[in-house]
Specification:
It is a single chain. This protein folds into two domains: 69 residues, no CATH class; 124 residues, Gcn5-related N-acetyltransferase (GNAT) (Aminopeptidase, 3-Layer(aba) Sandwich), CATH 3.40.630. 30% of the residues lie in helices and 17% in strands. A hairpin with an 8-residue loop joins strand 9 and strand 10. The radius of gyration is 25 Å and the shape is extended. The two termini are 42 Å apart. About 5% of the residues have low confidence.
Length: 253
């Protein structure tokens, strides 16, 4: 198996709240040359690290991150297990029977907050700017607020996902008419989920909502754009039934 690119490993590590650390040794053949490791946000070693730095091969780190991803899928299945009751000790035959006591009711598991969807508001601008920064786009709160006003006037206000009133996800909405299509085309121009809220099914919720919006607008086709480097996002869209059909080009004006 060939080693993955360090850029892909760094992206995959960031998606799991970790940091990829690369060896500072630049001379081939020397110990630790080409080695990498993982740390948490505080700098504490998580995998492939010792007191002197990285010790793992890129392929080993890739396997470790893939294992974490599989565990995240399993963790997203919310299964509550009630504690088993201990059997009371038996008394000797000549001991007096204790008075009957009602069995204590099992503790009810604390319900997890349920995500909700709503239209984005101007007050969301600071948080939306943070989420957009996670995609690698630099934008100010002021510009986000201005863009929201423009999109609202066009009837294309983005949707946000919230958990306990905190914005943790964003999906953009767009409808366009082209000369070569028999019906309007819908587009998802942006989709992002906060790192701390990934694995809760919010991506699917937002995409489903975007598709419903496009159907109501008369669209018979929906498309989405995604950066070439975001391999995990590509896998998500394929899982949602999307097919790769073209290559996107752009030019700054």
């Amino acid at each position: 198996m060939s080693d993955p690119s360090l850029e892909e490993l760094a992206e995959s590590a960031r998606n799991r709240g970790l940091k990829l650390v690369r060896s500072r040794v630049r001379t081939p053949g020397r110990r630790r040359f080409g080695k990498v490791g993982l740390t948490d946000p505080s700098g504490k070693g998580v995998f492939g690290m010792d007191a002197k730095g990285p010790t793992a091969q890129p392929a080993e780190v890739e396997d470790y991150l893939r294992t974490i991803g599989a565990k995240d899928w399993g963790a997203s299945l919310d299964v509550a297990v009630l504690p088993r009751r201990k059997k009371p000790k038996r008394l000797a035959a000549n001991d007096a029977e204790p008075p009957a006591r009602p069995a204590p009711a099992p503790a009810r598991p604390k319900e997890k907050p349920k995500p909700k969807l709503r239209e984005a508001k101007p007050a969301d601008a600071p948080r939306l700017a943070e989420l957009i920064h996670e995609l690698g786009h630099e934008i100010s709160d002021k510009q986000v607020r201005k863009n929201l006003a423009t999109l609202k006037s066009a009837g294309e206000t983005p949707l946000v996902a919230t958990l306990e009133k905190s914005v943790v996800g964003l999906v953009g909405l767009h409808r366009m008419v082209t000369v070569h299509r028999p019906a309007a085309v819908g587009r998802i121009p942006v989709l992002v989920i906060a790192r701390e809220a990934q694995g809760l099914g919010l991506g699917r919720m937002l995409v489903d909502a975007a598709e419903q919006w496009c159907r109501k607008k008369g669209c018979q086709l929906i498309e989405v754009t995604s950066n070439d480097r975001r391999a995990e996002a590509h896998a998500f869209y394929r899982h949602m039934g999307y097919e790769r059909s073209s290559i996107r080009f752009f030019k700054k004006l």
